[in-house]
Design brief:
The structure is a single chain. By secondary structure, the protein is an alpha+beta fold. It has three domains: about 1-60; about 80-85 and about 280-395, OmpA-like domain (60s Ribosomal Protein L30, Chain: A); about 95-275, Jelly Rolls, CATH 2.60.120.560. Helices cover about 30% and strands about 30% of the residues. It has helices at about 1-15, 20-60, 80-85, 280-285, 310-320, 340-360, 385-390; strands at about 65-70, 70-75, 95-100, 115-125, 130-145, 155-165, 170-175, 190-195, 200, 205, 220-225, 230-235, 235-240, 255, 265-275, 290, 325-330, 365-370, 390-395. Strands 3, 4, 5, 6, 7, 8, 9, 10, 11, 12, 13, 14 and 15 form a 13-stranded antiparallel β-sheet that branches. A hairpin with a 2-residue loop joins strand 8 and strand 9 (about 200). Helix 1 runs antiparallel to helix 2. The longest helix is centred in the N-terminal third of the chain and has 41 residues, at about 20-60. The protein is globular and about 55 Å long.
């Protein structure tokens, strides 16, 4: 109604020749334009809000109010859900990567270049836009292709991690190289049986507590060995905890007896790392913690769930030692441009800080910095070297 009146008033001055009328006309015209823009903005905001509600409804998202943590406003995000669901995850990967295969550059249909075949059919496939190792048939078994595979290539303290898409039956991880080594164990503590919801080793077995889990799904498998003590994890849950096993693991083999074209298994992001001293001792000795086990989606600052073991450990240490303050510093390998890597490392450092703040660490105890590819600690000429260079450092302040 107000717009109609304004346009009517304008009409009285149309054709008015004198300067005064022209000035009035100009002012009224400006007011009308401002009024129209304001009405358009209101309509747009309402439409955007309606669209967002529809998207949230489709995705099953329930909006929660923003919370204030340590004087910082924290908007509920998937990252907050991640820190909640994985807040008790205590797996900490080794500090130096000794074998890493992210399948970059592999060709679909070919045998994975960084593995050796013992039996069966295994090939590279594409799953969800990523390269994966596909176990097809023939009870396939593969071992990491390493120059000294006939020797003991697992140290006294090591971790193994990979992502597994489960079939309908067991997937097996042997803690010896079935091509080059003998098990040396009389009691069966040489291998893990893994299904989508359980893990078994020797006489130890445990299932995930969740109900209604999908049988065919991606899980994150993690194994930690420390001078005879062995732990096993599926996703955020520790399922195996053996205080002493009766043999010395020397290698690793992956095996799938029951796979077939209608019961395929997939593996990706396989990594072996050598362990190290506890974080607090490392801070006191070196003045910093180097964490290459904090991982992100490729080319993004989105934190992967398995990173929470390290973050939880450092958060607990900071809670026990309130005098500690850190600069959280992101580093990348040499892939990509200098500028992109610098920006990416800064975003990743900020993501880690935000996650730690959500877990209760005061924001004034953490600063962030991104150094991109400028400070490598290993070669960028091998997959293992790149994996060591892709890291987050917590530098004592």
């Amino acid at each position: 109604m107000k717009n109609i009146i304004l346009w009517a008033i304008l009409g009285l001055f149309l054709g008015a020749p004198n300067t005064a009328h022209a000035q009035i006309l100009k002012k009224l015209k400006k007011k009308v334009e401002q009024k129209v823009e304001k009405e358009i903005d209101k309509t747009t905001d309402k439409e955007e809000e309606k669209d967002l509600k529809q998207v949230d409804s489709i995705q099953g998202i329930k909006k929660e109010p923003a919370q204030v943590v340590n004087n910082e406003v924290q908007q509920p995000t998937k990252a907050a859900e991640l820190t909640l669901n994985w807040s008790k995850y205590d797996f900490v990967p080794g500090t130096k990567v000794i074998y890493d295969d992210n399948l970059v550059g592999e060709e679909n249909g070919e045998f994975p270049a960084r593995w050796d075949l013992i039996r069966g059919n295994v090939e590279i496939a594409e799953f969800g836009g990523e390269n994966v190792i596909m176990f097809r048939d023939g009870a396939p078994t593969i071992v990491p292709y390493m120059k000294n595979a006939s020797e003991d290539y697992l140290p006294d303290v090591f971790t193994i991690e990979f992502d597994l898409y489960c079939g309908k039956d067991n997937f097996v991880i042997y803690l010896f190289d079935r091509k080059n080594q003998k098990s040396g164990s009389p009691t069966g503590y040489t291998y893990f049986n893994i299904k989508f919801d359980r893990m078994e080793m020797g006489r130890s077995a445990s299932r995930l507590p969740q109900e209604n889990l999908e049988q065919r799904r991606w899980i994150h498998v993690a194994i930690a060995y420390t001078n005879g003590k062995l732990k096993g994890y599926i996703d955020q849950t520790r399922l195996i905890n053996i205080p002493r096993i009766d043999f010395d693991p020397k290698g690793v083999s992956l095996h799938s007896y029951h796979c077939s074209n209608d019961n395929l298994y997939y593996v990706k992001n396989f990594r072996i790392a050598e362990g190290g001293v506890k974080y607090y001792d490392r801070v006191m000795q070196d003045g910093k913690i180097i964490a290459n086990g904090i991982r992100f989606d490729t080319g993004k600052a989105t934190l992967k769930p398995e990173s929470m073991g390290i973050i939880n450990e450092i958060v607990q240490m900071m809670q026990e030692h309130p005098e500690l303050k850190f600069s959280v510093e992101g580093h990348t390998d040499s892939d990509g441009s200098d500028a992109d890597n610098l920006a990416l490392s800064e975003k990743r450092a900020h993501t880690v800080k935000s996650t730690m703040v959500q877990l209760g660490i005061s924001a004034d105890r953490l600063t962030t910095a991104g150094l991109g590819e400028s400070a490598p600690i290993d070669t960028n000429g091998t997959p293992e070297g790149k994996a060591n260079n892709r890291r987050v450092e917590f530098v004592k302040q």
